[in-house]
Amino acid sequence: MNGLFANENGRFAPRLSLRLRFGRVFQFLSLAAVTLGLIMLSVLLIDIILDGYKWLRPEFFTEFPSRFPEKSGLRSALQGSLWMISLTALMAFPVGVGAAIYLEEYASDNWFTRLIEINIANLAGVPSIIYGLLGLGLFVRGLELGRSVLAGSMTMALLVLPIIIVSGREAIRAVPQSVRHASLALGATQWQTIQNHVLPYAMPGILTGTILAMSRAIGETAPLITIGALTYIRFDLKGPLDLFTVLPIQIFNWVSLPKAEFQQLAAAGIIVLLAVLLSLNALAIVLRNKLQIRW
Amino acid sequence: MQESKLVTDVVFLRARADHDRREGIIRAVLLLFSIVSVFTTLGIIAVLLQETILFFQEVSIVEFFTDTVWTPLFASKKFGVLPLVNGTLLVAAGAMLIALPLGLLAAIYLSEYASDRARKILKPMLEILAGVPTVVYGYFALTFITPLLQKIWSETQAFNALSASIVMGFMILPLVASLSEDAMSAVPQSLRQAAYALGATRLEVTLRTVLPAALSGISAAFILAVSRAIGETMIVAIAAGQQPKLTLNPLQSIETMTAYIVQVSLGDTPQQSIAYKTIFAVGMLLFTMTLTMNLISNWLTRRYREVYE
């Protein structure tokens, strides 16, 4: 680049207009990178909607999967996803929020706390399929829960735990110290302070993080395939120990069938899945804006 | 008078003892919850290690790492993991060719060029890409990108590494952009102003002042991106195929480590068979690779934070 600052005789010359022109080209390139990402997103959405919208009929939501595309539906997949997400939230929410409270309000800064923190950071980067192998070894075979929706939910709870802990800690940290001091000064115990003052203020942030964790869980496929969730279920899901399938696994199953109609069914399933995720994310944004207290 | 003071003291002390006990129990339960995450890690290692050791009692570790054929599901079984590693790295390398340059450029735009308003709109839009479930990308790679590739190169196979690489690259782009932007935004304004004062243009400030100062954070983002690409499962399981082979041709059908685990999980392999144990051995290798990269990435991130705060 030093050549830029010299003229033909090798003497110093700022050549500002040339350097600024390089700058404009580079700015254009960097904007193009952002645009390319957004174009890809739009093409993906349009392609899927065009492929699948014709199959979004009432029967699509009430029928079981079938060998005949026109009789196939998402009934068992929707039931499975609903069960899985409820059980996952039931387990991951208290444990995740509890861990966040401990790390923010109780833990002293020692090697043990740092070990937990580094551990959580690394767990967030473990590939989801590894959690599937953990669930297979620990829950399906170790606890003998079989390929049940409970085993799947426990696996998923461990997978989303780091997300809930990290966002929970951020929300708790954002509550000003003065709130805690005021409560403690009036004679409240530490837990009373947390329960009555810190948690209510931190709740919008905690809920936002939990919803995002749940939308991750709804879209996850690999760990549930690994623990052995079935792809073809033609009965209603009645209890936590029943066999199950979920939306993304049903989509995966249809994608892997050769008939073109099944590919379109997969696209229709994807539209449903994306609609669910979009509503969840909208809910998270509304929660954040409506309930957030600014200090 | 004296006596009633004593009574209230006793009542008060008893209430406090109750409180203390309750506080202690709550604290213990919360501690237990935070240890769940440690047990998750230990659980992963224990499960993987147990089955991997059983696997290596039957298959030599030298064969596993040096043989070039992977056929555990066939009658004549060969246990060379290299073709799976080759497939994984081939797809990941292709994805990185897209995600790293585009992600870094996007980060530069967001951090150095975009107005506050533009950034507030563009960044969340870009991050939608990272929130799309991977099974959706798999569908897109198989039904949209592959036919497109077949029009360009007619020898493209129905399942191929390149289509998976392309969509995976766009999936990982926001991760690279977001983390690199964080690193660049953390570079103090005074460094930029010093460079401007010496007559540098915005491009020169960006490339020769901000980028070098944010280098460790950007490297952390790049390493995390590679780790994400190696562990990604559904895109490759749907679009890249199930043929473990040593090839560098991205238009061919290959198999990655993750896709192999899915393939065995979907099949009806008996639980005591050697083929079944292979998924844990492959999982152990995958876990070791990603964990190493994540540890390096976290270490780099912590290091650059210490410099500027």
Q: Would you kindly provide a written description of the structure presented here, covering whatever features stand out?
A:
The complex is a heterodimer of chains A (295) and B (309). With 295 residues, chain A is mainly alpha-helical. Chain A folds into two domains: 2-55; 59-291, MetI-like fold. In chain A, 72% of the residues lie in helices and 0% in strands. Chain A has eleven helices and no strands. The relative contact order of chain A is 0.14. The mean pLDDT of chain A is 88. Chain B has two domains: 2-58; 82-308, MetI-like (MetI-like fold, Orthogonal Bundle). Chain B is built from twelve helices and no strands. Chain B has helices spanning 2-58, 61-66, 82-113, 116-131, 134-152, 161-185, 189-197, 202-213, 215-231, 234-239, 257-266, 274-308. Chain B starts with a helix and ends with a helix. The model of chain B has no long low-confidence stretch (mean pLDDT 89). The interface between A and B is large, with 88 and 88 residues.
List the helices and strands and how they pair.
The complex is a heterodimer of chains A (295) and B (309).
Chain A: H1 16-52, H2 58-62, H3 75-106, H4 111-123, H5 128-142, H6 149-173, H7 177-185, H8 190-219, H9 222-227, H10 247-255, H11 260-291
Chain B: H1 2-58, H2 61-66, H3 82-113, H4 116-131, H5 134-152, H6 161-185, H7 189-197, H8 202-213, H9 215-231, H10 234-239, H11 257-266, H12 274-308
Helix pairs in contact in B: 1-12, 3-6, 3-9, 4-6, 5-6, 6-9, 7-8, 9-12, 11-12
Brief digest:
The complex is a heterodimer of chains A (295) and B (309). Chain A has helices spanning 16-52, 58-62, 75-106, 111-123, 128-142, 149-173, 177-185, 190-219, 222-227, 247-255, 260-291. Chain A has 295 residues and is an all-alpha fold.
Quickly list its features:
heterodimer, A: 295 residues, mainly alpha, MetI-like fold, 2 domains, 11 helices, B: 309 residues, 12 helices
Order of helices and strands of chain A: HHHHHHHHHHH
Q: Bin the strand percentage of chain A.
A: under 5%
Number of domains as seen in the coordinates of chain B: 2
In the CATH hierarchy, what is the class of the largest domain in chain A?
Answer: Mainly Alpha
- The termini of chain B sit apart by 60 Å
- Oligomeric category: heterodimer
Structural class of chain B: mainly alpha
**N-to-C CA distance of chain A:** 49 Å
CATH homology superfamily name of the largest domain in chain B: MetI-like
